[in-house]
Amino acid sequence: MLGEFEYLLITAAAALGDEAYGAPIREEIEATTGRRCSVGALYTTKNRPGAINSVYQILVFQPRPLPASNFPAASTRRWNRP
């Protein structure tokens, strides 16, 4: 079960999308609630093991496809054996 602050952190991160880092999340929480948010509380909550950290990682750090490379795929390389 999430507490109030965890819920605020997740909703702020979801609203900010790619800009969801410490300072913008803190500003979003302060603008939404009208209350101050300390940096320590933000990072302590974000790094807490369990559901909040995994949900935050999924929302913020979604894997992006790698750019196309000029190198051939590993399966097409030929290796000389002695």
Structural notes for this entry:
The longest helix has 13 residues, at 4-16. The protein has helices at residues 4-16, 22-33, 39-46, 51-60. Helix content is 52%, strand content 0%. By secondary structure, it is mainly alpha-helical. Helix 1 crosses helix 2 (22-33) and helix 1 (4-16) runs parallel beside helix 4. The protein has a domain at 4-60.
Structural class computed from helices and strand pairing: mainly alpha
Helix amount, in percent? 40-55%
What is the typical, i.e. mean, pLDDT? 75
Report the total helices: 4
Tell me the strand percentage band: under 5%
- The best one-word shape is globular
Largest sheet: number of strands, sense, barrel closure: none
In short:
With 82 residues, the protein is mostly helical. The chain is 52% helix and 0% strand. The chain has helices spanning 4-16, 22-33, 39-46, 51-60.
